[in-house]
Design goal:
This protein has 128 residues and is an alpha+beta fold. 63% of the residues lie in helices and 18% in strands.
Length: 128
């Protein structure tokens, strides 16, 4: 009985650690993309900034209209304790970089699938 509880506790701990790790990788990848696109990083370096940062929707690009201009904001109170701010030009570059990355991943997947199919037919022959 004790062993079962320990194993359950261990499994839950590993699951939570995996989720946290995935969350961190997601945040870091987005931050790199935002920075590469020219978004400006603003650190929540005062209690007032942190309090405001925590009120924003987290880890999603949101669009606000400020003085007749669209402002794109990505907030992360947990990981970087910062927000990234950009305008239309930076957002368009971010979208272009994301599309390029997606296309590159799809290309790599296609190459890997073709290699795997080739190995399969070489081993088992064309008749399977």
């Amino acid at each position: 009985m004790v062993t079962r509880r320990l194993l359950t506790l261990l499994a839950v701990t590993l699951l939570l650690a995996g989720c946290a790790s995935r969350e961190r990788r997601y945040a870091e990848a987005n931050e790199q993309g935002l920075a590469a696109a020219g978004f400006q990083k603003r650190v929540a370096d005062t209690p007032a900034k942190m309090a405001h940062l925590q009120t924003l929707i987290q880890r999603k690009i949101l669009v606000y209209k400020v003085k007749e201009r669209l402002v794109y904001v990505w907030a992360d109170a947990q990981m970087c304790q910062c927000l990234y701010i950009g305008y239309e030009t930076q957002y368009q570059e971010y979208a272009r970089l994301a599309l390029d990355d997606k296309l590159e991943r799809e290309r790599r997947t296609a190459v890997e699938e073709n290699e795997a199919a080739g190995l399969f037919s070489e081993t088992w022959g064309p008749d399977y």
